[in-house]
Amino acid sequence: MHKYLARRALFALGTIFGVSLIIFVVLRILPGDPLVAILGVEGHAKMTPADRAHIMHDLGLSDPLPVQYVRWLGDIATGRLGKSFFRGDTVAQLILHRGPISAEIALLALFVSWLVGLPVGIVSAVKPNSMSDNVARSLAILFIAIPGFWLGMLIVLALLFWFGYKAPIIIVHFWESPWQNLQIVIGPAIVLGLAQGAYIARMSRSCLLEVIREDYVRTARAKGAQERSVVLGHALPNALLPVITISGVLLGFVLGGSVAVEQAFGVPGLGRSLVTALIERDIIVVQNLVLLYAMIFVLVNFVVDLSYAWLDPRIRYA
Amino acid sequence: MPEPAIASVHRSILGELVAFARRNTLSAVGGIVGFLIILMALTAPWVAPQDPLKTHFRHMNKEPDAQFWFGTDQVGRDTLSRVIYGARTSLFVAFSAVLLGTTVGSLWGVACGYLGGRFDLASQRVMEILQAFPDLILAMAISVAIGTGLPAVIIAIAITRIPFGGRVIRSVAISVREMSYVEAGRASGASAFRIMRLHVLPQCVAPYLVLATTHLGVAIVIEAALGFLGVGVPPPTPTWGNMLADSITGLVPRWWLVLFPGLAITITVLAFNLLGDGIRDTLDPRLSPGFLRLVTGAGRSAPAAPAAAPGLATARPGASS
User: How many C-beta neighbours within 10 Å does residue A313 have?
Assistant: First the structure.
């Protein structure tokens, strides 16, 4: 088990390392002068070459690329993530301030997806091809197709018409005012959760259908166990493994999707900072935020792997 | 036999289509709707009632009426025409990106699966790294880095599709490699390239088609999201995402500006997804178990493999029992 754990951890670390390299290469070696981005074309033209060199030096952008890369890795290790070109905030402040909102959205969305998806999947699987199964499957197909950010826009529009909803401008953290905080995060969480819930419902339905056909389930029925305990107690635990994996993968959709959904709801989360930074070409912010998103994704999949090994001994001893 | 599950009796193409429609009614509906949308995109100049870029300052922010069926936007452009023209850009980007990404990924996957060894190991690591990024975020970053524009968006979305093609086709290639006719080819001295081209590649056609259709919907959504976030195809080109982005710039968002482009995205994605499900069921009944997990990237890591054990998890909607 320890050996397995160590190997997975090493893999995850290697992946993160590769991710950082790709981000760095994409953002630095591809064309586009960061100074033009910072100062604008006119401002850039007005400066003397000496000034330009000076600013580049201040930003740490004049060193050779390998030096910059290694320094960035060092910065990550020590937690100093550099500053935004345009705002005084350090990236670390940005993440600490806005990160919790996005994290809450992601976790709540995960919660919603299981809360909605699993029961629907179970109901579908218990009576396949019944009316309720067909309705559930149609809804799943529909929710997979609807873009989350558009659904968010529609909800905001409806709230605006009927309740005079205003987009949250300031960040209210949970520990400051739970109620107001919930109002900010609940919309994006539901929208993201429903789409993931559709996948979970599909997955849990088909897995459960497979498991229910197995001999041990028939045995459980034969010994007179109630249908309820057969499905929930015997069949479900075995059907859940793939559902857990897909849930980890879905988090990638949640992380990516939340960027657009935050924008739709006007929620001041980390995703919006990323969009703003990208449009402004605020390289330092972009490279750190993209890395953060990727790291979280890798970490979640690592945890999913571990939970797998924990839940299924066959993997541990294989 | 390269195409399994197709009856050995030769039927006309029309006959095949009718048989397909009988078996998968929903997919057939999806296919027809998708076809109509493609047709609409191709014939946009004749179908659209107005020029999508022409502003009518006397008709700004009009609600839908007899003249402007879908209303007009802040500068009086006809929403219906923009939705129709938007189909052109959105579909063009999605098709090109999926074609490019899936093809590159598949060829890479064939090479990985057949050659194996260090090349395969290294490639697997690269694909894993690519998949460590959330799709939309990777597409955003690449699109901005290359410089926004139509080709940049296409390349950005295509890159996010590469690992999916690579993984699925690699697994096919690995299973084909062990077959005796391939071994016979090797024994008779055929080069690796020749075997891959003549013996392995044909086996990958069915999964390739399935992959491509499955990813069309995703590509359309990513394109729309990029447009919505302002890092997609630059305005004033009408794309569905750009229209949604424009719709919230006004002080008071107009419902018709939000509703119609989004509806267009949803209907298109729905149509292609339904079609894709049907194609998967028809072309690839062997691959269905565990296939969705490969396609969606689940089970990317080694230990998930036992879960792909015989027949577990057919997450396709058509799985009736």
Answer: 10
**Token pair for A261:** 């959904």
Q: What is the ipTM of this complex?
A: 0.84
Pairwise CA distance, residues A19 & B45, whole Å? 44
Which among B127, B97, B99, B96 is positioned nearest to B111, based on CA atoms?
B127
φ/ψ (deg, to 5) at A90: -80, 160
Interface touch A141/B317, C-beta < 8 Å: yes
Asked if residue A217 lies in contact with residue A235, where contact means CB atoms within 8 angstroms, the answer is yes
CA-CA distance, B266 to A154, in Å (whole number)? 13
Contact state of A256 with B269 under an 8 Å Cβ cutoff: no
HSE at residue B268, side-chain half, CA atoms within 13 A, is 32
Task: Measure the CA angle with vertex B258, ends B253 and B264; round to 5°.
Answer: 170
Distance between CA atoms of residues B9 and B107, nearest Å: 31
- pLDDT per residue over A97-133, tens digit each? 888 888 888 889 989 999 998 999 888 888 877 888 8
Distance CA B99, CA B106 (A): 10
- Residues in chain B with CB shorter than 8 Å from the CB of A157 are 253, 255, 258
Q: What count of other Cβ atoms lies within 10 Å of the Cβ of residue B60?
A: 13
Q: Do the chains contact at A147 and B300, CB–CB below 8 Å?
A: no
Q: Backbone dihedral region of B227: left (phi > 0), alpha (psi from -120 to 50 degrees) or beta?
A: alpha
Beta bridge partners of A90: A83
A249, amino acid identity: V
Smallest CA–CA distance from B293 into chain A, residue: A246
What is the nearest CA distance from B148 to chain A, expressed in angstroms?
10
Q: What is the pLDDT along chain B (321 residues), one digit of tens a residue?
A: 444 544 445 567 777 777 777 777 778 888 888 888 888 888 877 776 777 666 666 666 666 776 666 666 776 677 777 888 888 888 999 999 999 999 999 999 888 888 888 888 888 888 888 888 888 888 888 888 777 678 888 998 999 999 888 888 888 888 888 888 888 888 888 888 888 888 888 888 878 888 888 889 889 999 999 888 888 787 778 888 888 887 777 666 777 778 888 888 999 998 888 888 777 777 755 544 444 444 444 433 333 333 333 333 333 333 222
Mutation for testing the A interface, residue in B33, B63, B126, B129 having most A CBs under 10 Å: B129
Cβ A255 vs Cβ B134: under 8 Å = yes
For residue A18, the chain B residues in CB contact (below 8 A) are: 125-126, 128-129, 132
Q: Which amino acid is at A12?
A: A
Q: Is the pTM of the predicted complex or chain greater than 0.95?
A: no
Distance from the A285 Cα atom to the nearest Cα atom in chain B, whole angstroms: 12
Tokens of A3: 């050996």
- Contact indicator for B262, A153 with CB cutoff of 8 Å: yes
Expressed in percent and rounded to 5, the helix, strand and coil fractions of chain A are 80, 0, 20
Integer Cα distance of A162 and A150 in angstroms: 18
In 3D space, the residue among A185, A194, A192 whose CA is nearest the CA of residue A101 turns out to be A185
Cβ of A241 within 8 Å of Cβ of B307? The answer is yes
